[in-house]
Structure formats: structure tokens, C-alpha cells
Write the C-alpha cells for this entry.
Amino acid sequence: FASVHAKLPLKQGDVVIGYKGLVPTVHAHELCWNKIKKLIIVENGTMLTRLFDWYEQLPEEWRDGLFLYRGQGQNARQVFELLAKFPKHTKIAFYGDFDPFGLNIAAHFFKSRKMAILIPECWKEINRNHVDNNTAKFFEQIHHSHDLYTDTAQPVVIRKLYMHVHINQIALMQENVNRLGPLSELKMD
């Protein structure tokens, strides 16, 4: 977890964790799930250690949330399982890479829980020629990605984003996405 303003609610009491570079790890059974009001799941762990460098790019209503690293392998599966434990009143968003894998992760999380996705405000202007675009990474990912555009079970917003990424051959890592400026919230209902 990481935070700028939100406290980490534990059974032993709420803990202030809003310090630059602080990324505490706790067992899930120690959390008070019902006290978490907003949760932003980030794809890359580096984004937690650098939270104070980029959180102001978030829409204002998300800046006071708790941030959770998605993890890899078993940790990623645990985060997916944890989504079911959050009460309905908890607002949840996913912020990932702007690439095929990032959108597939968002779609996977959405199967478990309705949530928002955080993306660059300027997403429609991003194309293959963008200075931070990694076309080689795009081609590596696209062959191992589920084609979200043709999946009618997916929210329209995910399908639209995926089509844009696919047509323009985009793979921007979160660290580079943050150089693009403000982020916007897209609701996936």
C-alpha cells in the first residue's frame, strides 16, 4: 500500500502512511476492509514509491485514496480475490500501463468488480509516433493479449480504448504515461 492523505485502516487502528517512499506491506487479514473509501490499484510497483511525484495528475476526487500494487503471479491473484471483500461503498479504480496488457488487466479486474479506469486525458492524441511509445513492446504483447475489441462482454469504454491502442500500436508504460499530464477517470459500468 501507499498513500498521500489516506490512513491505512488496520484492526489495531488506523496508520498514517503518507510519507514519501513509504510502501508498507500487511497481511490481508489485518485490514479493516469496510473503512477503505477509495482504492487505486496500480500495475507497476515503482508507481507506489514515486507516488508523491505524480499523484497530483489524478482527478482530484482520487487523490485521497489508498494505493495498492497489483503484484505479479500469486500476489496478483490475491489482489483479484481481495476485490470481492471490499464493501459496495468502496470506490475502486485501476491505473495501469496504456498498452494491450494494461487494458487486459483492467478488463480482468472488472469481471470481479465494477470500477473506474484511470488513463491519460490526452489518450485520443497518442499514436505510434509518440516519443515514449514502445512499438516492439506492443507487438510482443498483442500476440498474447485477449482481443478486447471483439469481446462484447467488455464495457464499451474498454473496447474503445483497446481499439485505439491496437490501431495505433501503442505501448506506454505507467512511468511514461505520467509525463503526459493529467489523468482522467473513465467509469466502466
Notes: The chain has a mean pLDDT of 91. The two ends are 26 Å apart (CA to CA). The longest helix spans residues 100-112. DSSP finds seven helices and eight strands in the chain.
